[in-house]
Structures are given as C-alpha cells and as structure tokens.
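Hi V.,

You were right to ask for the full record rather than a summary. Here it is.
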Amino acid sequence: MSEPSQSHVPAAVVDAMRSAQRVVIATHSPMDGDGLGSGLALQRALHARGANAVFVTEAPVPRSLRFLPGSEDIVLLTDDMPVPDADWLFGLDAGEESRLGRAFAERGEHVRVLNIDHHVSNPRYGDVVWVDAEAAAVGEQMYAMLRAADMELDVVAAQALLVSLVTDTGRFCYSSTTARTLETAAALVRAGARPDNIQRRLYSSEPIAVHRLRALAVDSLRFFADGKLCILTVEAGFGSQLGVDSDDVKDLIDVATSIEGVVVAAMVRGLAEGGTKVSLRSKDDRADVSAFSRLHGGGGHVRASGFSSDQSPAATEDAIRPGLEKLAVVASG
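Predicted structure:
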C-alpha cells in the first residue's frame, strides 16, 4: 500500500508547524478520540523539535481515553487559572471557534490561530486555516501535516493518531472512510501503532455500569415516523445512580443509531449547568443532520452533528421533532 500523499497540505500550515515556538493546543471540550489523539501527536512532534507546547482542556479527559500516554499531562483549566501565554493557538477539530472555549476567547491579541478541522460547517476562523471536509478525522490531517513538515512521528504518536482514526470513523465503517484514510491507518501501523491494543482498551474494557446504562437507555427510546426516527431524551443526571460520567451518557446516541430501520437518531440531553445538548446521527446522506443543526446554531458533518439549546430537554424535543421526522421520511423515499 502506498504512502498517503501530503501534497494537499497548505504551505502556510507547514510553515506554522515548522516555525511555531510557543504553542497552546486546544480542541473542543469535552474532547473525543480525534481531538485528543491529534493533539497528543502534535504536542509530541512539537516537543521533539524543541518547541514549547501546552495542551489545555476545560473538561477532564474521558475515562475511556486515559490510557493514551501524555493524556495525564494535559492542563485542565480551572476557573481561576489563566490561559497559558503563547505565540500560536493550534485549534483542532473545532467546528466553530466557541468550541475552543477559553483558549480562544481569552487568548492574547498577539496570539495567532491555526484552525485545523474537517467539519464542512466550519466558518474558517483563524489566521491560518486548513479545513478538509474530505478527511475522515483531524488525525488523518495531522499525519499528513507531520510528514509534510518533516516532523517526528514516534510509536506513541502513531498510536494516538490511530485512536483518532478508529474513533472518528466508527472503526472504519462510516461513509467518511476513504482510501486515503485506510492508507493513513496502514502507515500508522507500519510506524508501530497497535490496533489490537486500541480494540482492547476502547471496546473490550468497559465497566459493567456502562452496560447497565445502555439498558436504561433502551427502555427510554421512543420511535416516530414508522420507526425511521429514534429519539432518546434524558434529564441532567440520567444514569448518575450507576456511577457513570457524562461521556458515557453522551455516547448513548450510538444505541439509537444501531437499531434496524432507524434513519435519523437524536439524543436530547439535559445539562447540569442548565440547557440542553442535542446530538444527531443519520444513516443516509440524504438526511443531512449538519444542515439541520446549522438551523439551530450548531453544525458538524452530514451524518453526525449537534447543537445546544437554552430550553429544557422536553421543550427542545418538541421543537425539533417535526423537522427530524420530515428529514427521516424524505431520506427514506
């Protein structure tokens, strides 16, 4: 299998990677496998060439991803902690600037922003921008960037990037998976990444509480449009009696998506701080949930997107259900 090409990496991105000396790395909070894996690989590469790179977050690293080396060193920004000063902010996998949180909002006026993302809805914020909607994950872009900039990719970074690809492609089963994605995965395995380790740590080591949480979710699923639309609406604190965390609850959208006959799935989740988070999934490109999310101030991918609401979960569901039913039915026609 051939080495994936790096010719599509913009020269300005390569220049930033090679020249930046003081960098803050940030992704959306809470982070996922793509943002975490890409950020860890980037941080290692920058450190290897002598740059100072601080990876920050406003939410703890999800339990399932803490096995990745370097995750324990990510700086958790508390309310009384200032954002580290730097010359560059490298923003990863953030479909809009607000998703970078304080790292973006509180950066110094002198800080330049490098925006690296693969969401089609990205508004192209920042001083240097590379949005590649054909990339299955930012990890795919990161591999190409590191190679184009002649930066180090060791075994640890390769493993982190393979986690990025595995998680954001649904183990290479989503429609976003391309030949370039698989070529990148093969290159990472040649660099020492271990798919079996990822399978064991991510998908074969779940606490029993997570499985009990899924059982609760199945009992709460509701179906509309002859089963084409599945909605899971939960209040803040759902499953808390089981000792699970918010990331386990967030992932329950996959339960709805996996059911036969469902075309569009929605998870409407109450937040502890108030308001509601809506996660949408689609099994058909004709059901563009990214366009639907943009109507509500959010964004994402054609088949995976989301947005926030100031209303309660019940009120939010009432407001969006007719539109989602129509989306599911049209896609089934």
